Amino acid sequence: MAPQPGFSWDRMRAELSGLPDGQGLNIAHEAVDRHVALGRGDRVALRLLAKDGTRREVTYGELAMRTNQFANMLASEGIGPGDVVVVLCGRDLDLYVAVLGALKQRCIVSPVFSAFGPEPIKARLQLSGATALFTTRALYERKVAALRSELPSLTHVFVAGSEHTHPDDTIPVAPRLDGADQHFVIGPTDPETPSLLHFTSGTTGTPKGAQHVHGAVVAHYATGRFVLDLDPDRGDVFWCTADPGWVTGTSYGIIAPLVCGATLVVDEAEMDPARWYDILAGEGVNVWYTAPTAVRMLMRAGTDVAGLDRARPALRLAASVGEPLNPEAVRWGADVLGIPFRDNWWQTETGGIMVANDLSLPIRPGSMGKPLPGIEAAIVSCDDSGTPHRDADGAVQLLAGAAQGMLALRTPWPSMFRGYLNEPDRYAACFARAGGITWYLSGDIVRRDADGYLWFVARADDVIKTSGHLIGPFEVESILMEHPAVAEAGVYGVPDEVAGAVIHAVIVLRPGVVDDEELQRSVVAHARRRLGAAVAPRRLIVAGDLPKTRSGKIMRRVLRARELGLPEGDLSTLEGARS
Ligand code: ATP
Ligand code: MG
Questions:
Q1: Rounded mean pLDDT of 309-315?
Q2: Is 357 in the pocket of ligand 1 (CB under 6 A)?
């Protein structure tokens, strides 16, 4: 639904119920208990699709009861407010109960992607100072047990599962949950109470821990309503394909849809086009939130995949986040699914969607849309390397009208991060003043057109300056993808004595396309025609795949380092790394 005139965060907050007796605002209360109190206890909250094809439904009433038991279990084991609880589970019921139950107990919850190998898991447990880990026996034995001696602050390891045997240094939860009280009173939760700790994707370097608060739920609710068009009275069927180990999978794969009273489809399995079309059709998904990498995989699979024709009917809205969405992908959605993908932009740091092609906005393919109500965006003047110009006092300069520069957001907004874990200076460096106002500097370079639409250019780290032109890889990648042989492209700059930098591209071909000189010439010719000789890639490398983060983002820094024989940097989130 389009935002009503007179939007304010206070009005959004007023549509939530808050804890009884003015005890504050708790995410889990708004996501679960509120619906039970409003008479929606029998509505299905989670529809869990297991890898083996079994399907299980859990109502809001049952979820309230189970999360109460989980919170009681934590309390009886001495895990309390402010303790960091890392949740390391596959996408099954245990994960959702643990995250919401720990939020009820006012713990700081850090969901960690279960496909990570031991090292990234250890790093997150160490950095966060976690006192408790909730996981499965299998994951514990494979990924944590051998490192336990290096985790002195980790006093409690809870293992899920119905088995009665468990490793010595762990606590089996099944018997404790069975006996736990089904009632739990959430303690006072000031909106500034820490809630979630999310690590960034690690696209540009070592992942950062972004700290969030319970008050963020106001932004999750507002964006769930206005961007994802979820209506608590209607009760939509919603599917977010991101894993809760990434911020999208928690903000929009748990919190926003539940706060908006939706039925949340959860698929335990990995991406597979035929399975995904089956889910869209079989579950009657109304609203679907996914990522460009997944859309490109569907495009690559073609239109002969079983189930595609049935996937359309219930779908009302398809949205995408995480990377720039190529115009080709937007149009493909319209052609093949009957609705275009609606791109939106946000970050781990922003906690929720900030810029979007919401339903009220005519889509301009390739644009991320416009800032949402309640969000004021500005364009900060930058130098050629993507660094903001600052005056002697450190203030930045905002550009008016159509302009290109760093995207900045006026502080505060409810879901804004409140710190980087153990890195106060880095946090402070994200903010700058302009015109007496404090702005958050996103690190992304965007262009604003005359009508206020925002177009992603590049991460400041990825900007390429070639022969005096400032180029973002995305623009070149999108042009390469227009060529019928190209499924994906990753573009980066390599140093050049004459031009400063020249553009190189790694491309992945569509299935069945043969790589030969003629093909390469044809792709380069297309790029030259569309971009001009100065900006078209000087070198084209055909590869079987692109290095990506486990959340699906192209790691251009790795492409560049590989070609130049430089150290590849932090690869802890690289897809395919040992798990
Ligand atoms: P790290 O900060 O560790 O390098 P990351 O920035 O990829 O990793 P996330 O917070 O998961 O970590 O991703 C946010 C970033 O993803 C944004 O800053 C932006 O660069 C990119 N992004 C997200 N959505 C979009 C979009 N719709 N269009 C273009 N880029 C996007
Ligand atoms: Mg980032």
A1: 82
A2: no
pLDDT tens digits along 489-518 = 999 999 998 888 999 999 999 999 999 999
DSSP state of 22: G
Nearest-Å Rg of the Cα atoms of the chain is 24
Mean pLDDT of the residues in the chain: 94
Is residue 405 within 8 Å of residue 458, measured between CB atoms? no
Amino acid (one-letter) located at 173: V
* Residue owning the nearest CA to atom 11 of ligand 1: 201
Is the minimum distance from the CB of 198 to ligand 1 under 6 angstroms? Answer: no
Cβ(207) – ligand 1 distance below 6 Å: yes
Whose alpha carbon is nearest atom 5 of ligand 1? Answer: 201
> Domains, the chain, ranges and CATH?
9-270 (3.40.50.12780), 376-462 (2.30.38.10), 465-564 (3.30.300.30)
Cα-to-centroid distance, 322 and ligand 1 (Å):
5
Counting every residue written for the chain, the total comes to 579
Is pTM beyond 0.85? Reply is: yes
Dump the DSSP string for 188-216. PB-TTSEEEEEE---SSSS--EEEEEGGG
